[in-house]
From TrEMBL:
InterPro entries the UniProt entry points to: YkvP/CgeB_Glyco_trans-like
Protein name (database record): Spore protein YkvP/CgeB glycosyl transferase-like domain-containing protein
Origin organism lineage: unclassified sequences, metagenomes, organismal metagenomes
Domain Spore protein YkvP/CgeB glycosyl transferase-like residue range list: 22-171
Amino acid sequence: KGQKKLYDISFIGSPKAPRRLTIDFLKIYLPDLKIKVWGEGWNNELIKPAYYRDFNLAVAQSKICLAINRYDDIPCYESTFSQRLYMLAACEGFILAENIPGIDQFFKINPPEEAEVIAWDNLKELTTLIQHLQPNLQNDQQEAFREKMRKRARKRILKEHTYAHRLEQIIKWAKEL
């Protein structure tokens, strides 16, 4: 909270496909933006992972936080997202998330004035969203909009998506067996 925004766009995570493609695409098509990644394996560079306080600091210093899904040979990855999306919201990140099936069951994505997360479907749409936001990143009215969205996302996380909530849900399911 109160951190100076050092990065226009950030991503925290490994460079699994399509994450690397997304970041490389953005670096080519939006070269004037400061894009920062944290995680092991990016271009064989020693890029420090962001855990715990470092994660919170990375989010606080970023104007836009990307939530990019990963796709391995595990089919469930195509319709789920990692805890990172929850963590970004809990840290009050302004999130542009890949629009995966079911995301709207966990976060409000429409209409914009009520959204907790902005979802995108493809790289063209992501680039257009960022280009729309880019000139407004310093605009006070846009900052107020982003601040409201960040607060709504955090409130939703604390109300519905903590580990305690998941444990209660698992216990409930176990009792139903």
